[in-house]
Structures are given as C-alpha cells and as structure tokens.
Amino acid sequence: MKKRCYITTPIYYPSGNAHLGHTYCTIMADIIARYKRNRGVETYFLTGTDEHGQKIQNNAEKLGLTPQQYVDGIAAKFQDLWKELKISNDDFIRTTQERHIKVVSEVFSRFLKQGDIYLGNYEGWYCVPCESFWTNVQVGEDHLCPDCGRPVNKAREESYFFKCNKYLDIVLEDFEKPKFVFPESRKNEMLNNFIKPGLDDLCVSRTSFSWGIQIKENPKHVVYVWLDALINYISALGYLSDDDSLFKKFWDNDDVEIIHLVGADISRFHTIYWPMFLKALNLRQPDRIFVHGLLMTKDGKMSKSKGNVIAPQPLIDRYGLDCLRYYLIREINFGSDGVFTPEQFIERINVDLVNNYGNLVNRSLNMIKKYFDGVIPQYVEGIKEIDKAIQDEVLKTISKYEELMDDLKLSEATNEVMLLVDKANKYIQAKEPWTLAKSEENIDELKMVMSNIARIIFVSTMLLKPIIIENYNKVFNYLGIEKEVKYKDILDVHYLDNLKLKDCDILYKRLNVNEELQYIKDNIKQV
What we know:
- The two termini are 41 Å apart.
- The protein is elongated, with a radius of gyration of 26 Å.
- It has a six-stranded parallel β-sheet, sandwiched between helices.
- A hairpin with a 4-residue loop joins strand 4 and strand 5.
- Helix 13 crosses helix 15.
- By secondary structure, the chain is an alpha/beta fold.
- The chain is built from 19 helices and 15 strands.
C-alpha cells in the first residue's frame, strides 16, 4: 500500500439538482477515502462540478438567468448536500473558478505549440445533453445518441481537434496494465466499440455557443467541455500554479495511488482521452480508472423525462446516513449496474443492520452487563474447537477485508464483515451463554465467550467505520473505549480487557415494511 492516495469523483454536470446516482458515486468515493485514512494513508479527496457547455447555456436562458447565476445556484445545492451527507472531501472544484480557467487556457496553448491540436471543420451529429459528437454509424438510421438514446442534431462548425492517433499506441500500453481500466468489461467496451473501429481526432473547441473558456489564440472559440472538464483533476491540485505543492504531493509522485471513480456513461472520455491528454503533458497516469455501474430504478436509467429521478433527501431525513450508505455499498455490487427498489432497501436495513449487526451489539453487551457487571472479561485462547475457530475467523476476516478494499471490491469486503457478524450470532446460539451462566463451573468458558463476542463487535465496527459514520463511535463508546481508536488496535486481542461498558441504546430500529413502502412511494421521487 502506498503512503498517499488521491481519490476523485467525476465532476458533476449541474444541469439539474443532485440525485441518488450522484450520491451513490460520491458515497463510494467517500468510503474509499475514509478506509484509506483509517489505514494511515494520507488521502486527498476531490469532487466538484463541471459548469460549462451548451446545455448549461440553454437551461440558463430558459430561466432568464446568466449561465454563471444558474451554475452558482446548482453548485451550492451540490455542496450543501455533500455537507449533509458528511462527505469527507478535501476540495470542491468548479470549472468556472479562476484557478481552473487559467490552467485549461495554458494547457490548450501548450497543445497548440506542441502540434497536438489543429484547426479544422466538424460535421456530424451532436447530442446536447451528453455534450458529445457522434458519427453516422454511431447514431444509426434513427439518429439517436448511443449513450442516452435521445435525438441528436446535425452540426457543422469550425473546431480545433486533438490528434488522438499521435498518442493512441502509448495509451494502449496503459490499457494492458492490470486493472488500469476496471471492470474488464468496460476496458473491452472501449477497445471494441471505439478504438478498434478507428478513433477519430477529438473535437476540443466550439463556436456555436459562448459559455466556456475562451481560447486566447482564437477568441471566437471556447474550449470544448470535455477537455475543460478533465483538466480539473490536476487544476485542483495547483498544476501550473505558483503553489503546486499539492500537485507534487498527490500527482507528480510515485508514492501516491491515484484513483478516478467515473460513471459508465462518461467512461470513454476518462479511459481514452484523459490518458492521451496526460501523455501530451508528459504527466503520469492514474493507477485506477474505476467505472462504476449505473444506479437505476425499476423503470430503467434515472431521467427527469421519465419522472423516476430519486432525490436522496427524503431517505436521509427518514433513515439517516448509515442506512443509506450501507444499502448502497451492500446491495449494489460495486462496478456493476444496480437497481434501487424500496423493498430491497427496507429488507437490507432490517436483515443486516437491525437483526444481524445491531442485535449482536445490543444483546451481547447486555449479557456482559448481566453476567460480569458490565466489565469485559480478559481475552484468552480458545478452549474448544468452536472457540478457536471463531477467534481464527476474526484474523481471516481482517485480512480478506483489507485485500478486497485495496482492490476496490467494496461490496465484497463489506460482505466479509457481515459474514463475521453472522458467525458471531451463530456462535452465541451454539455456546448458549445464558446456560453457561447457570453454573460457576462454566465461568471461565463464559468469560471467554463474551470476550470473543466483544472483540468481534469491536473489529467489525472498525471495519464498518467508513460506512456507518453516524454510529461507529457510539459502539466504541458502549464498549467503554475512552481514547482515540487506531486501526491497528483491532490486532490487539487484549485491547478490550477489563473495560467497563457504558449504557447502550438500540442502534438501528426495525422498519415497518408497509409504512416505509408508503413513505418512500410518497416522498422519494423528487426533481
């Protein structure tokens, strides 16, 4: 594991308010950032908004606003939501900020001087919502955008183009690196659908609208949104600025792991063109470009036109952050498409957080209070095979969890923790502490059982800490821990010895299925 980590979300296009899809990606990035910090990795976490382009200009005009007024309002809502979600980002980049504009302008000038960009004419099909150009073959006879399925418009204008083939062979070498683009299916999609058929040079300027970064060498042009947007990952770190200390620390450094999380609908720009831009700037590549799947509803991909856009706010207000975060990481396999359903949401909370984890915490600590006056017994090696097995299971879970989290297999890592919790509940049923407590002859075995369970509660809570950000500290407090807990403490089998428990409340309340289904039906779809 490297000493530092730079984790980014895509910068979101503020053509409308944030929905559950934006929330999903940001929460996953936040979980990774919190995990890395847990492990002692110095981590820098970036998110933000991509604020230029024709769609923004059109939306602003419809509302009688300037484009800047329009994006100011939407960006503020994104920032407010991330604060409410307690997202631990270190920075929020906006492409209308001067620090970003200066870098994009300088990068464009460098590309011109290096001969990476040339002036030509574009004629083809353009999708305004996706800010994407397409060929006749790609849009088909119905002239529909291959990404979003909406109608495209015929466009012809003078444009600057980036010479993609100049860097294609070098980028293909990066594609061969293990998990540079992941999942493998996304890498194959880029190779088979875009690169092998023949990659056209990329249009990097527009003249048909004015809302963008003006090209100083040719002021009637503005920088095309995708060249503009992708530069955010380095402009936010101070690339080409007077103070580039963050850039040197979190990009221009072999001891930093760079992870981009991107949605499937923008993977082409991040996996093909962004590496080319970096090559042209003579900068290192990210370690991972992880393409997460789309979060959909039963009606398919979320869109305002379908009326199926899910607002996160009602879920936060009703169920809190832990339940939403846990559901998103546990129910939706990270890297695959997922479908949000109210039924699965309620079931996942009741089965996992209430029945499994919450029940383990509450009933186990109450037994320690009852049998040992609230003092956690000293840890001892297992007496019987079943005791040795559960103790070994703790170390196996820690090891497997770390391996999976480091590989960004977040859902699988979470599942390993919940399997340990489930085994702990079964261990209680097998050992029957209530029966052991009836005889003084069994006191040593009872102490061992309860210390084992207390340790599993402690370890599983530490492993779930990046997810259950509201309640993990409550559990540490219930265990009587009064100092700051370090990740390495979970390897100390005697860490909890003789700690005095504090009163505990129910961590997660059982949800009434019918009531909650009605609440979600009435409140969840807001735009």
